[in-house]
User: Fold this.
Amino acid sequence: MFSFVAELFGKSREVRDLDRYLHQTGINPRAVNDATKFTICKWIREAVAQNGGAGPETINRQRADLQASAAELLAYCVLGSSDFVEMNSAERAAAQEARILSATEGRNDFDAGIIMLTLHASIADPEIAARVEIESD
Assistant:
């Protein structure tokens, strides 16, 4: 349903931007279903809206930062550690590992949501899916 609507009316700028960030991290944006991307974009809009009173430049910078951050964690969860390192770097992979640890310990709801979306959409790398399930028990 979502992909039909997206094809009919075209993707929103937010989704196209998220797709661009996914591509920059080494993942084909088509590997992530539209419903997952729409949900992440909604969460980004909500996070930016919580900082009401900021100017348009600040809001655009926040949105771009959140999109890039979400795309990087999403790509890590889908690609897995070794493929992510191959496409990016060991340092960036280590940063994503730290984010996963923080999320599984309940310190970052935004990241936890992204991780759970990949698990529920069955697009998470099997090694990461197994590890996150173990850590969240």
Notes: The chain has eight helices and no strands. Residues 56-79 form the longest helix (24 residues).
